[in-house]
Amino acid sequence: MTRPADPADDLPVSFAPLRDQLLAAAGAFADDARPLGAILGGLVDDVERAFREPLEIFPVCHHSPSSALHMARRLAARPPRTIFLECCEDLRPVIEGLRDCRAPVALQAFASSSEHFPAAWAPLSLVCPLTEFSAEYQAIAYALENPGTDLVFVDRSADHVFQWMPQESDALEKAVPDEPGSDDEEAGMHGSAVGVEIGSLAPTFDVFRRVLLKNARVQHFSEWYDQYVEEAVVDAGYPAYRQVLFLIGSLFRRLGTTDRDRRSDELRERHMWTRIKQDLRASSVDPRDALYVCGAAHAASRVAEFGLATDAVWDVPPSTPTTWLYGLLPSSYSAICHQFGHPRGAVTLAEARWRKSLARHSLKPFALKPTEKKRARKDGDAAAPEAVPEPEAPAKPKRKVKAVAAAAPPPLETGAAPGRLLDYLQGPPAQVESDEEELLKNCVRIVELARKDGYLASTADGIATYQTAVLLANLRNRRHPTPYDFRDAAITCLEKDVVPGKRDVGRLCDILLGGDRVGRIGFESLPPLARDVYDRLAPLPIALESRTIQRALLDFRKSPELLPCSDLLWKLLYLMPPGVVRPIMGQRLLGHVPRQESWDLAIGKNQGQVIQLGYEGVTVEHVLERRLKKAAFGPDANAVDALRAAEDGLLFLKSDRLVEELGDRAVDLLVKEPDARQAREIHARIARLVHYYRTTAAGLPAWLRRFVTTGYSHYATMLPNAFADRGVQPGDLAAMLQFIFTLESLALSLGCERSQLVIAVRQAGPVTADPPKLALLWAAECVLRLRDVASLRARFDALTENELTLPALPEYLEGLLLALVFTPLVGGLTVELLSKAFERLPDRLLMPWMPKLLRMLRPHADAALPVLVKEAAAVFPSGLDALAAWTPPWNRNRSEAEKPDFEVASPAPARAASGPAERAAAALLAAHPATTDALATAMGLSTTWSEAEPTPASHSASPPNPPEVEAARALLRAFPATSRAVGSLLG
């Protein structure tokens, strides 16, 4: 390709008149003109240096409509062979997927972890947003649609972006914007990513920025740029546009940039000019046939590598071995504003100016033609995701250009014309004519929107908005109101003290002027995981691409084919942030078979979250397995983490291999547990797993049997130290005992020895001093038959009768309540102690420790209250009529103080059974004495079994019943519920 000769290329360029006038102005405004003259002269030198460069430099401002407009006209008038673009060089392959996307989108580089950067930075994420009305997007669209033009990204890589940041833990947090407000959900679409702005042109020196905005009577830099640069160059010639941008870039670089930012810019410029020279040498392209698109501030660079007149190149530092992944991420106008600190609505206003400029100049922008591949939908006739429509081709095209001017564009002014810049500085620029009709229409529509959102707006407010907009324009030296003036006027006239609806007036103005456009990534440009998610959820009767929340109703009895969709939704719920998928009805439990479920899905609205998940693996199952292993095998993992991962692996993946691996890890970590703080959760999870596996045909797996036996031995070994250590909480100690006693039968069947537990409990007795732990120890001894309930009753009776020891009673009761989680034997004793306290203690003793007692009982309401209520129901009468004659069991036979209530002093002689039923009952009790012994222990009685067999009734008459038998009958008649329960068990 040969560039057509331009007669203006060889014209001499002289900026001397401009330099002379600026120096004269410096002398007129300052007593010592040398410093100011040096600054102004330096600005002219920068403009002249950039303008004389053989490689045509195209200065841009990010998301500037005038830059995009001049780029479209420049490419249509004189197509280049190579376009060098200021963008991260490793993002170049990603742009091929832009064909299936709807702007705005963001090019993204992502690394889940890296050993070469601070650990607090992980994961590393970088985004580069693109909009249709940006010069860089126009260049990309043109290059992709014209194979004869090469597109080269020359900026530093994503890895260098993080390399050149201060390597401190909080450096990345400072580079990432704060979380957006809850009223603007779309502003956080980029997440915690570092933003790279192509053509960034904004002063970073705060003092310079404040002076600039104050003298211009504006609030934001975007408004200043719109008034003093955008309006001046949008309709100007190409040379004037370049010179003005060169001048603005030099001004900001010299006066408006901090030293730190300037050093970072110099590194980028050295990198970009090095890549440009390397590419030109490799491709043998004439520099006059190339175009260098960069930010206006970089065009005024003073680095040694600047320009093709020198062969100096930079030794680019190597990248770290970090593994980077690349893709496309949906963006939005509000996300771009939030990422780069623009005022809300600035990008929306820029799009409005872009559309008006295109209509005024009868131009159509360059656009990307969608790929021919279209995703097959479940209905078979839906089109691919919406893309930018292909514009009509111009008449008699000589090149394959997808969008050029509708009519033949005017000849592009390429000659050197320093007078253009002089005219710009000497007088006010030619401004766009005021659109009176549009302003009136906006004033009417904003009142309508305000009414719909609950504001008390009227026609008078619309008139006031119009007049205020005109007034603000006059105060700001404008010939007609701009959208910024209209927005400020609407807020002034319509905003109240309290916002009645969800949106304030500023937000309503943004909606009126164009709204917050949200991009979308096409199916073919999605990562494999995201495409797999869309394909697997296709059977659902909803539109997954919709940006509204979709309600999916799943009836598995009628549509069993939806069960795989349910499995995937539960996995997505586990992996993704809240709000992407949300179950309304249904649950996921071990062994549970679902029948119906209901889900709220916002996958289309949170497409970026699905894409981010795609960076972690190829499928959802792959990502889930990696996360489970990371949780179990992490450096800070404990037994609970590994056990939770094993349970989740069984619940979501149903992989015996994975569960076995995670379970073995949990066993290894259990042995390393230094204390019992995790014992409660460990017991809860292991109990669920034991109950689940008992319902399966295979039974308990090997790792679970190992966990039970290891846990039994481990906690039994820790008991003496746990009872003695005051740092161990009673609740943690109770959780250890709960694990031991509730799983004891299983542990003993798997080979554990109870003698280890008995020895540990005996060792704990002499070293235990805290009242709650003493109560736990006594309860454990009762379970092991090392102590009976009668001795405990006597000990607590002595405690309540002594006023000095009475304040410790609530602490003992706390221990008894904690003991209810592993044994119900102390339930009746607890009820008895509380009843005695309220019955016998005087108010002067009872009232002081009543608040402490209530505070102690409250945390145990869920676990202990049901047991206590059940025990109380068995002791107290069921009706008020029986309360008057009722005597508590612990008060009966009080006259026999030294004699137990029911004591079998010696073995009683055998008694002949009165009938077959009694003989059968006696034989059953003799065959299974454990039940009778437990009941007797619970009632504080001693038992002695007779060796004599019952005599048949036919051999002799029944002798009179001994006293103990009559007493037993009286006891059963007093408590008939026990007899009925035993009878129901025996049939």
TrEMBL record:
This is DUF5682 family protein. Residues 370-381, 893-902 have a biased composition (Basic and acidic residues). Residues 946-958 have a biased composition (Low complexity). It comes from Paludisphaera mucosa. Residues 368-400, 891-913, 945-964 are annotated as: Disordered.
